[in-house]
Amino acid sequence: QVQLVESGGGPAQAGGSLRLSCAASGGTFMRYVMGWFRQAPGKEREFVAAIDRAGINTYHADSVKGRFTISRDNAKNTVYLQMNSLKPEDTADYYCVADPGAWRPLQYHYWGQGTQVTVSS
Fold this sequence. Notes:
- The structure is a single chain.
- The chain is an all-beta fold.
- Helix content is 0%, strand content 50%.
- It is globular, with a radius of gyration of 13 Å.
């Protein structure tokens, strides 16, 4: 069973950048498709981005495409979310996710505890 721990959240100014990290342990990292979700206050959880096991294929939600980039370092068992050109509407709790199934799973089996991102205008 893989454990996921996010870091890198915090306050940011609109137009600024943050990089989230997610360290995985307890499993073979390369077995997992990795991703990020977010949930803003009072809103439903939203898919943000996903990356395949080798780090070759990525998929980003339209709301973040061109601003956010997911990547992974399999040697460090870590997945990243580089967030540029931040907007106040990016304010949310961000969750790292993992799944041992097929690329772009409908559901992710493992979830981290989340890290909060607050973007002010």
